[in-house]
Specification:
This protein is of the alpha+beta class. It contains 5 helices and 8 strands, in the order ααββαββββααββ.
């Protein structure tokens, strides 16, 4: 998916309106240091389930871990476990354990705590950048380009136009459609209301930020 145009090209520098990178760094991913390797995070978006958004907890935990390593290493492995439901009414404390600090690799264990109990744990491994002949990623699958895939709003609209859609589903979809989501997601080959079908136990998506996130991200 092609990256959004850099707003600074039009506005001559500064933080442009809709600069998602600034929002992420200054709010969602900004942790308050309380002590050495102890941070407090505040949540800014609660989904319709009225529970903490798991992706934000992962992001804040990774930020906490990264604050305990040098700037010349980068995360290359992250294992996460959601232990309990998060409470959106209270902040989250992130406790970082420096499991190992080596010359090339460093390992950090992070525990996210609310009400004195862990709601999430993860282990992150950081590595200094160095060439490697080993490649782990899958080959790019053959899928239609994002310009040919139905977007979230149009996809929901297809269901809402179905006269046989039950009212409780219609209410829920309208609630979802009204939410402002900073990430644009396009599902490859989704089912339609008139063509519900069995599918493989996997899905493919095109994903990008709706706002500007900087040239290096």
């Amino acid at each position: 998916m092609s990256p959004p145009q850099d707003p600074e090209d039009e506005q001559g520098g500064g933080d442009p309106p809709g600069d998602l990178r600034s929002v992420l760094v200054t709010s969602v991913l900004n942790l308050e240091p309380l002590d050495e390797d102890l941070f407090r995070g505040t949540h800014y978006w609660v989904p319709s389930t009225e529970r903490l958004f798991g992706g934000q907890i992962v992001g804040q935990a990774l930020v906490a871990a990264a604050k305990s390593v040098s700037e010349d290493v980068h995360v290359h492995s992250l294992h996460c476990y959601f232990v309990r439901t998060g409470d959106p009414k209270v902040p989250v404390l992130y406790q970082v354990e420096r499991t190992r600090t080596g010359a090339s690799f460093s390992v950090r264990f992070v525990k996210a705590v609310q009400h004195g109990r862990p709601i999430f744990i993860c282990q992150a491994s950081f590595q200094k950048a160095q060439p490697s002949p080993v490649q782990h990623q899958f080959s790019m699958p053959a899928v239609p380009p994002p310009e040919e895939v139905v977007g979230r709003e149009d996809f929901i609209g297809q269901f809402l136009r179905d006269p046989e859609l039950q009212e409780r589903y219609r209410v829920g979809l309208n609630r979802i459609a009204a939410q402002e989501v900073p990430i644009e997601i396009k599902v490859v080959n989704p089912s339609t209301p008139s063509q519900l079908k069995k599918m493989e136990p996997k899905q493919m998506f095109w994903v990008r930020a709706r706002g500007y996130i900087g040239p290096e991200l």
